[in-house]
Write a structure and sequence with these properties.
Helix content is 53%, strand content 14%. The strands form three sheets. A four-stranded mixed β-sheet has the order 1-4-5-8, with helices on one face. The chain has a four-stranded antiparallel β-sheet with strand order 2-3-7-6, with no helix packed on it. It has a two-stranded antiparallel sheet with strand order 9-10. The longest helix is centred in the middle third of the chain and has 32 residues. The chain has three domains: 109 residues, Acyl-CoA dehydrogenase/oxidase, N-terminal domain (Butyryl-Coa Dehydrogenase, subunit A, domain 1), CATH 1.10.540; 90 residues, Butyryl-CoA Dehydrogenase, subunit A, domain 2, CATH 2.40.110; 144 residues, Butyryl-CoA Dehydrogenase, subunit A, domain 3 (Up-down Bundle), CATH 1.20.140.10. The two termini are 37 Å apart. It contains eleven helices and ten strands. It has 361 residues and is an alpha+beta fold.
Length: 361
């Protein structure tokens, strides 16, 4: 038995990487990070043509009906160029609809998601941990409360909101009683927001608003995609460090010939390879609905957070003073990895959850 990607999966990821290599150069990343929505829109249109929005949508609703592993491969490619496209929010919205939506809701929303006419922001953070008096309460009067670090908030036409009981709701952007505020983070390649609800009307997801354990599954999917994004960004930082070490000269020798630099690059490569296997295996387990999936995803998220941080620092160190300049743009990858580290649970919090899953605490 071969424990590796299929030829179709390799081809799929390669096609995304090839498109991004041409369509998402560093200048585009800079422009998008400075707030140009037109730039991000052009990139998004090309990615939709490649079928990214169809990956998780069931075949019965016009999608490809593929698994989370295929989504992980796409996210890894996007992280490699720190693409200003929130595929994580898209995948989470589709996951929520697949698990909790009625057939009517699926028919209504899947088509818009695959064509790009509908974009969801996802308010899921408070299902992991509540801070600063945040959290959303659902009642007969509507939604009340606040949600922080909402994914894809700026571009969203609708929001998928998780309340304190784990129920999921769809809210229109222009709904009465909803304030959408920009929330700045270190990662300007993606947009985050704050939602404030005041008796805001919503559409409960699922029959009679019962979402079951859909929110828990969405958290697992989100964590794994963030780990995959960090994996792609880390690999790019390693590649850039190796390329720079092969060009930069000191004492009439390329610095890559110095033993200390060789060790730095070898250490980064040694940390990335097992991390890749961990992410892919966790995705496979979730696709197969294994009881171990949640545990492996916690381990993948926490491990990639630490590994990515180490690689970001080390790759910058290999570049020396040039690594801190905007000319090379390494800070975009550095900041993407830093944001992923905290989203949907810090490594400390996720490891604590892994310990609870194993009955250690």
């Amino acid at each position: 038995m071969e424990f590796a990607l299929s030829d179709d999966q390799k081809m799929f990821q390669s096609s995304i990487q090839a498109y991004l290599a041409d369509s998402a150069p560093l200048d585009l990343i800079r422009t998008a990070a400075d707030g140009s929505h037109d730039t991000a829109a052009a990139l998004k249109a090309g990615l939709l043509d490649l079928g990214l929005a169809h990956i998780l949508v069931p075949k019965s609703h016009g999608g490809l009906g593929l698994g989370l592993l295929d989504s992980v491969l796409a996210q890894e490619a996007l992280g490699g160029v720190v693409a200003p496209y929130d595929f994580t929010a898209l995948a989470l919205a589709i996951t929520g609809l697949r698990l909790a939506g009625t057939e009517q809701q699926k028919t209504e929303w899947f088509f818009g998601l695959t064509t790009g006419d509908v974009e969801f922001g996802v308010a899921l953070t408070e299902h992991v941990g509540v801070r600063e008096n945040a959290g959303v309460m659902a009642s007969s009067d509507g939604l009340n409360g606040k949600s922080l670090f909402v994914l894809n908030a700026a571009a969203a036409t609708h929001f998928m909101v998780c309340d304190r009981a784990g129920g999921l709701h769809i809210v229109e952007r222009d709904a009465a009683g909803l304030d959408v505020n920009t929330l700045d983070t270190i990662d300007r390649t993606r947009n985050f927001g704050e939602l404030v609800f005041d008796n805001t009307p919503s559409i409960p997801l699922g029959p009679e608003g019962k979402s079951g354990d859909a929110a828990d599954r969405m958290v697992s999917v989100g964590r794994l995609l963030l780990a995959a994004d960090t994996l792609g960004a880390s690999q790019s930082m390693l590649d850039k460090a190796v390329a720079y070490a092969g060009e930069r000269k000191q004492f009439n020798r390329v610095i890559g010939s110095f033993q200390s630099v060789k060790h730095l690059c070898a250490d980064m490569a040694a940390q990335i390879e097992p991390a890749r296997s961990l992410v892919w295996h966790a995705a496979y387990l979730l696709d197969e609905q294994s009881d171990e999936a949640s545990l492996l995803i916690c381990l993948a998220k926490s491990h990639l957070a630490e590994t990515g941080t180490h690689i970001a620092r080390t790759a910058t160190e290999v570049h020396g003073g040039m690594g801190f300049t905007d000319l090379l743009g390494l800070h975009y990858w550095f900041k993407r990895i830093g944001a992923n580290r905290q989203l949907l649970g810090s490594p400390e919090a996720v490891r604590s959850e892994a310990a609870r899953l194993q009955g250690w605490v």
